[in-house]
Amino acid sequence: MPFFGFYSKRVLCAPKALGSTSERAAAATRAAAATATTTKERVPLSLLRSRTPPNIPDGAAAAAAAREACHAVARAAAAAAAATAAAADPASVAGDKLAYQVSTAKASATAAAAAAKAVSLVAGAPSELKGKYIALFFGASWCPHCRTFATRLHQVYTQLQHLQEQLRQQQERQQPPQPQFETIYIPCDRSPVEFAAFASTMPWYGVGAKM
């Protein structure tokens, strides 16, 4: 099921007392161990956006059909590009386990970048979000409810962007201007190919592997 959250204020996290000194020390040790375990698995992420998002017609059925068709084409293009990139830069099969892991990670990143490029995803700057209200869309391409929600959100997003442009023109002389809004897709897709294909059907940002 999709989840849609609206974020407008900075989140402040206050430290919470954990009990005795020994308990705090044990918690710190566990946190350090968890950080050390996950550091090697981190993948650089960036904001990605479709250069040519599809036009969605009015009407639920027509809009859903248009997005599904666009998604199918994008999925095929992304899969082909990722496969070509992976074949051109295969992971090492050396006995060194660390070298193999590094090579595999590089090959995966190359395939992800190729998939994103094949469907015309371009990187955006985080500074573009400054001063805006942020709506977070958690979903996945394999979830039919998420695809249905994405279609509805696409229609609303397009209407609101048009309204924002009208308000911006009216408020050009107003100081300070009213904040705008933006949407960010937080993916739960199973692969970079699935993410790239789904993100290419969206006019808003998605969080994907750095290109």
From TrEMBL:
Pfam families: Thioredoxin_8. GO terms for molecular function: protein-disulfide reductase [NAD(P)H] activity. It comes from the Eukaryota. Gene3D superfamilies: Glutaredoxin. Keywords: NAD, Oxidoreductase, Repeat. It catalyses: [protein]-dithiol + NADP(+) = [protein]-disulfide + NADPH + H(+); [protein]-dithiol + NAD(+) = [protein]-disulfide + NADH + H(+). The keyword Disulfide bond does not apply. Residues 131-206 form the Thioredoxin-like fold domain. Its EC number is 1.8.1.8. InterPro entries: Nucleoredoxin-like (IPR052259), Thioredoxin-like_fold (IPR012336), Thioredoxin-like_sf (IPR036249). It is an enzyme of class 1 (oxidoreductase). This is protein-disulfide reductase. It comes from Eimeria brunetti.
